[in-house]
Design a protein that fits this description.
The structure holds 2 protein chains of 2 kinds. Chain A is mainly β. Chain A contains 1 helix and 34 strands. Helices cover 4% and strands 47% of the residues of chain A. In chain A, the strands form 7 sheets. In chain A, strands 26, 27, 28, 29, 30, 31, 32, 33 and 34 form a 9-stranded antiparallel β-sheet that branches. In chain A, strands 9, 11, 12, 13 and 15 form a 5-stranded antiparallel β-sheet that branches. In chain A, strand 16 (237-244) and strand 17 form a beta hairpin. A 6-stranded mixed β-sheet of chain B has the order 2-3-1-4-6-5. In chain B, strands 8-7-11-15-14 form a 5-stranded antiparallel β-sheet, covered by helices on one side. In chain B, helix 6 (79-102) runs antiparallel to helix 7. The chains are: A mainly beta, B alpha+beta.
Chain lengths: 476, 469
């Protein structure tokens, strides 16, 4: 066989192999089991109604008749009742009880009715999804409310907190799992220096228990303490309880669920400044790279201030005071958004402090919302005998949306007058007062829109007993 | 073509009922060609030519095989060139199939690359052999020139390609690890756990590192179940993914999808006590290639309220199911009521606490026979629901019910000494008998053909040998 006779065969073989080589291999397949639902974001959210089960973790509280007694509110806006179990963890003991949340109703559970202890945490397991859970800390007049966590995490971040002389800050590290969690806790000290107390490195959180860390014992006399809790092994849930003695005019208590992850954008639906009213944003960058952030504030009326840009060094935090923003008029509500412009995610909290001569008194600090959604639930709304409650609905998107507010309870959905089909333009917000004439009852509130919105609840306890603000729970 | 069809039909008949699995979606190919579909490995043509089924690494020396196999194409003549061409086209077809599958360009799912590359490797081996013949008949007889140089290069390439094989053959281990997970995971030791009741172990990870036959969960991820500890020889055969096997896969999907934080409770009615996630085929010190478990899945498992994780070796994560129950238990009253009402597994299992249930029928007296004392109440047997399971208490048979949509429950009205056994269906014995007869008939037919052929060929052979015996 001469070369000419071989050429066609060799040509076909070489050409085929060459062609396959030129185009290259297909992509290597990876497991695709993890859904969006499993990839927990930077805030709690209610699972879709069709999931097999959903679980909520409430870390902070007590069950001893004290000022931070734990109460849980489970809200169900669905047309079907939901069964489940609540497991209370108090001082090393735990007890479970079956629960049922009626259709379009809320269930209020008090820890002290089931357990007794200076510390109380809870896990709420629901058959199916579509419900949301919040916890309220307090007894009698006053109190603070925050969503419970919808997933555990091995990292938790808080941008704000104080261990000043008049302040007491506690972390509730809740490990609901049957194995130890080993965590390292680091704070941001003065001028951004890291504070890593030896006692809080390799801290073991025993299984099925909650460990309370008094931050002031490890990071003394700091006006602002951003913090990172990172687990070497295991997972947990972290709440912060900030309270004040009143000796420096600051009063009240504020509970906040930490953020399991930093995010590129944080939305805040409500806010205002005025005499005696201090409003500030604290931006914490827990990463290894410098973050450049921009704060956009859009007032209800008047001139829109220029965006405020700040650089946040890796591992440090910066504070932006509303009072320092030019053209922001007092007593005018505003919507705000903090976003990074260099893709380095951050954690952002908003602190509101009310002192004389403001009509309100108190201190609250809460993380913003890193997510936007069409439907939101505020499980632990209040009647107005003891507290003035307002729901703030903001539209952070560039398109107008139409939103409606509904009260969930007693097996029905009751439309809130003057809060139906409210049109919100870009960066616009509406404030709805809910609860007048409802006595001291819990009112769960459902907010629905035809586009993405952000929802907050603000509480003003009468008699100067404190203020509180927290983001609602988005429904998937 | 007729002959091929008839031969295939006979082969299928001889392998009944297993051959029927080929028509069950997914099941047949998984048993034959592994759990990963073709192309999942993302292999390039260079890797295919070297038969390197890993997406990374691989030896440069492996190029020696295609180089040596190319020799008859370049220097062969006559039948040697013709056959070399055919064999290269067989190999090229296999490579192209795997490559096309990697680009999702095939209308149907085929077995994995390791399966499809077998004919290609056989074809190249034959081409190499033909190359040797070409050297003898086409090169030695010709004048000194390029042919001799090509022959020398091909010989050298073949020798180099064989070096790694020789290295593996010298100590006889063929690169197998010197240790296994049996020693690393002492928690699975069934002898030490036997008093707590029979249990199962769920193995989850890349199919390459699982020590048992497995079922596909996702691309590059599969699972299998062993009984009372590490897998045994029989468990290398995965069988059908039905009953408890399928439910275990569904439970894993629910957990991975974030639809439950109670995976332990979902697995408890299946008797699963441990979930083992190996990331290598052996403990880390053995140095086997890593097959990392997807970190997002690890997070999903770490978020389960009833799984207790522990790192027993850098190459494996062991989760103990805090909600587990043995495979044969006496249910508590509350659990019995739930099991009696339920006709599916996952909904009821979420709220079902089996940790208080007591192991019963713990004495094994046969492969599918267990004895022990039982009390009044419901006895739950975590085996696929079948009328073949029979429970006798003091000689009286107890009626059986389907439990949780897949298993067996027996409502015992009077406690006593009990025997649980599985009675194989007479149809199965008949089927086995028919299979034996079929094999005997085929063997007899073959023997008859051989005798007949011998008789036909005897005169011819006699003539060729000139009458010599």
């Amino acid at each position: 066989v001469n070369l000419r006779a071989r050429l066609p065969l060799l040509g076909v073989l070489v050409a085929t192999v060459g062609l396959l080589g030129l185009i290259g291999p297909g992509p290597r397949s990876e497991p695709d089991l993890v859904t969006e639902a499993a990839a927990a974001g930077a805030m709690p959210s209610a699972d879709e109604p069709g999931v097999l089960s959903s679980t909520w973790y409430c870390a902070a509280g007590s069950a001893d008749g004290g000022s931070v007694d734990l109460t849980i509110v489970v809200a169900n806006p669905l047309e079907d009742a939901r069964r489940g179990t609540v497991t209370w963890f108090a001082d090393g003991e735990r007890t479970s009880e079956a629960i049922q949340v009626g259709a379009q109703d809320a269930l209020v559970l008090t820890a002290a009715d089931a357990v007794e202890g200076s510390q109380a945490s809870a896990v709420v397991e629901i058959e199916g999804g579509g419900v949301a859970v919040e916890h309220r800390l307090g007894s009698g007049v006053g109190g603070t409310v925050s969503p419970c966590a919808s997933a555990p995490s091995d990292t938790w971040f808080l941008a704000n907190g104080s261990t000043a002389r008049d302040a007491r800050q506690r972390f509730y590290l809740f490990n609901p799992f049957p194995a130890d969690a080993i965590v390292d806790i680091a704070f941001v000290g003065p001028e951004g220096r890291p504070v890593t107390p030896p006692a809080l490195q390799g801290l073991a959180i025993p299984p099925l228990s909650t460990t309370i860390v008094d931050v002031g014992e490890h990071a003394r006399r700091l006006d602002t303490t951003a913090a990172a809790v990172r687990a070497r092994s295991g997972r947990l849930v972290v709440d912060r309880l900030q309270s004040f003695t009143g000796e420096a005019e600051r009063t009240g208590a504020s509970v906040a669920l930490a953020a399991p992850a930093p995010a590129p954008v944080w939305h805040f639906a409500g806010g205002s400044t005025g005499e005696g009213l201090d409003h500030r944003w604290v931006v914490y960058n827990p990463g290894d790279a410098e973050a450049i952030v921009v704060l956009d504030v859009t007032p209800e009326e008047g001139t829109v201030p220029a965006p405020v840009e700040r650089t946040v060094r890796a591992g440090s935090s910066v504070t932006i005071a509303a009072g320092d923003i030019p053209l922001l008029e007092p007593d005018v509500g505003f919507v705000s958004t903090v976003r990074t412009i260099n893709d380095v995610p951050v954690v952002v909290e908003r602190q509101i402090e009310a002192r004389e001569p403001a009509a309100r008194r108190g201190w609250t600090s809460t993380l913003g919302s890193p997510s936007i959604a069409d439907r939101w639930l505020v499980p632990a709304g209040m009647g107005s005998d003891r507290v003035a409650q307002t729901i703030v609905v903001a539209n952070p998107s560039p398109e107008p949306v139409v939103a409606s507010v509904t009260v969930v309870g007693d097996g029905t959905l009751v439309d809130v007058a003057d809060a139906q089909s409210v049109e919100l333009g870009p960066a616009e917000a509406t404030t709805v007062t809910i609860g007048e004439g409802r006595g001291g009852r819990h009112l769960s509130i459902l907010v629905e829109a035809d586009g993405p919105i952000v929802v907050e609840r603000h509480l003003d306890w009468l008699g100067g007993a404190g203020i509180d603000a927290s983001v609602g729970v988005p429904l998937r | 073509l007729k002959l091929a069809v008839v031969a295939s039909a006979v082969a299928a008949a001889l392998h009944l009922p297993w051959a029927l699995d080929l028509f069950v979606p997914g099941a047949g190919w998984q048993a034959m060609g592994g759990v990963d579909p073709t192309g999942a490995e993302g292999l390039g043509i260079g890797q295919l030519l070297r038969f390197q089924t890993e997406a990374s690494g691989g030896l440069l020396l492996a190029w020696g095989i295609p180089v040596a196999a190319a020799l008859p194409l370049l220097v062969g003549s006559g039948w040697r060139f013709a056959w070399a061409g055919r064999l290269w086209f067989v190999a090229l077809s296999c490579w192209t199939l795997v490559w096309l599958a990697g680009h999702d360009a095939l209308p149907a799912s085929l077995p994995g690359a390791t399966f499809l590359l077998v004919p290609a490797s056989a074809a190249l081996a034959l081409a190499v052999a033909i190359g040797v013949s070409s050297v003898e008949q086409d090169v030695r007889t010709g004048p000194l020139g390029a042919r001799q140089v090509l022959s020398a290069v091909a010989t050298l390439a073949l020798v180099l390609a064989l070096l790694p094989t020789l290295g593996g053959a010298l100590n006889g281990r063929w690169g197998t690890p010197t240790t296994d997970f049996d020693r690393a995971i002492t928690a699975l030791d069934a002898d030490g756990r036997g008093s707590q009741g029979a249990f199962r172990v769920l193995w989850l990870g890349h199919p390459d590192v699982l020590p048992l036959g497995s079922h596909r969960l996702a691309d590059g991820l599969s699972y299998g179940i062993s009984s009372n500890g590490s897998p045994r020889l029989l468990e290398l055969w995965p069988g059908r993914a039905d009953g408890g096997q399928a439910l275990a896969g569904d439970a894993l999907r629910l957990a991975a999808g974030g639809e439950t934080q109670r995976l332990g409770r979902l697995l408890a009615p299946l008797g699963i006590r441990f979930v083992v996630v190996p990331e290598r085929a052996a403990p880390e010190r053995a140095g086997t290639p890593p097959r990392p478990f997807p970190p997002e899945l690890r997070r999903s498992f770490d978020a389960q309220l009833d799984l207790r994780g522990s790192d027993v070796d850098p190459a494996v994560v062991l989760y103990e199911n805090a909600a587990w129950a043995p495979t044969r238990i006496q249910l508590t009253d509350g659990a019995a009521e739930t099991v009696a009402r339920a006709n599916s597994l996952f909904g009821p299992a979420i709220g079902l606490d089996l940790t208080q249930a007591e192991a019963v029928l713990t004495r094994r007296t046969g492969r599918l026979r267990h004895e022990g004392e039982v009390d009044v109440g419901v006895v739950y047997v975590a085996e696929s629901a079948s009328g073949g399971w029979r429970l006798e208490v003091d000689g009286r048979e107890v009626p059986r019910l389907d439990a949780l949509g897949w298993a067996n429950a027996f409502e015992v009205e009077e406690g006593g000494s009990a025997t649980l056994r599985y009675e194989t269906s007479p149809i199965r014995w008949l089927a086995i008998g028919a299979q034996v007869l079929l094999w005997a008939a085929v063997l007899a037919w073959c023997a008859g053909r051989r005798v007949l052929l011998g008789r036909v060929l005897a005169p011819v052979r006699s003539r060729r040998s000139g009458g010599r015996p």
